[in-house]
Amino acid sequence: MGFTSALLSILAIHLMASISPGPDFVVVSQKTLFQGRKAGILCGSGVCIGLLFHMSYSLSGLATILAHSTLFSQGIGILGGSYLIYLGYKSIKNSFSKKNIVNDTIYTNSKSSAFLSGLIVNILNPKAAIYFISLFSIIIKPSMNIEQLILIVISIMAVQMAWYLTFIYLVTVPMFKEKFDNNVYLIDRILGSLMSIMGLYMIISYIF
């Protein structure tokens, strides 16, 4: 397989993985819907930096060691699950607030944490290591030079961010936003519940 074919294969696989619902996508959705486009973009950027972290150690070979370290994986998985539950709890709690949670003043201070939320959720997901080991072991060859590897890493981050930007734009257009505002409390509780369930699942799967 030539480099161009390998790159296109990686990007196609990663695009499908990005679109599939998961902790990263749910957190970006929550930040976008309740804090606006800027917060969604910041959160998505945090996820992409987390991807850079995972890809860096995966390509260095460290991921193989981490993947076989049961205790380390369990610890990271439990931390990641706990953080998702915490975010879910905050989301559900805010939905019961008597204040109008679509008012920008409530979320002004929390916008600065959007990037950190995306970064933490992604980094504290040990399954990312397994994902990149599997992806890279199939596609990447020893003959590839450093420039080609850097291009692969940048392209994966670009695909991830392009998907987030597309999603963020679509859910913040006026027509959709009006429907969202009419069901703001219900949506917040649904997203909060999803984050909590995913967090609980992560904890259970890594304990047992």
Overview of this protein structure:
By secondary structure, this protein is an all-alpha fold. It has one domain (3-98, 106-207). It is built from 11 helices and no strands. The chain has helices at residues 3-19, 23-35, 37-60, 62-67, 70-95, 104-107, 114-123, 127-139, 146-171, 174-182, 184-207. α1 (3-19) runs parallel beside α9 (146-171), α2 (23-35) runs antiparallel to α11 and α3 packs antiparallel against α9 (146-171). The longest helix is centred in the middle third of the chain and has 26 residues, at 70-95. Mean pLDDT is 83; it is low at 100-108.
State the total count of DSSP E strands.
Answer: 0
What Rg do the Cα atoms give? 18 Å
The poorly predicted ranges are: 100-108
Q: Into which percentage range does the β-strand content fall?
A: under 5%
**Domain unit count:** 1
**Helix content range:** over 70%
Q: How many strands, what sense, and barrel or not for the largest sheet?
A: none
Q: Which sequence of SSEs, written as H and E, runs from N to C?
A: HHHHHHHHHHH
Query: Please, how many helices?
Result: 11
GO molecular function, one term: amino acid transmembrane transporter activity
Organism: Vibrio palustris
Pfam families: LysE
Subcellular location: Cell membrane
